[in-house]
Amino acid sequence: MSLTKKELETHYRNESRAILKERLLLVLKAKDDGMIPALVAKGGVHRSRSWTSDWLARYRKEGLDGLEN
After folding, report:
1. What is the DSSP string of 31-52?
2. What pLDDT, in 10s, does the model give residues 24-39?
3. Nearest one of 17, 12, 42, 16 to 28, comparing CA atoms
4. CB 58 within 8 Å of CB 20
5. How far out from the chain centre does Cα 49 lie?
6. How far is CA 18 from CA 1, 36, 67, in A?
7. Cβ of 31: how many Cβ atoms within 10 Å?
8. pLDDT above 70: residue 22
9. In angstroms, rounded to a whole number, what is the distance separating the alpha carbons of residues 38 and 47?
10. First and final C-alpha spacing in the chain
């Protein structure tokens, strides 16, 4: 299930776990700000392209639950 930008922003603001905040930021930048995943990896979250692609795929498949370990 895909969330709206406002819903994602609310989850981001309310999340206390740093790792999940990072993954939510990734989704916000790639999905809702329209950034290309490779650019998000390089300049947005400073992670590898494969890390970025893997977490975006999990989010698309499982929604917020996919961002959990």
Report:
1. IIS---HHHIIIIIS---HHHH
2. 998 988 876 677 777 7
3. 12
4. no
5. 13
6. 23, 23, 12
7. 18
8. yes
9. 9
10. 18
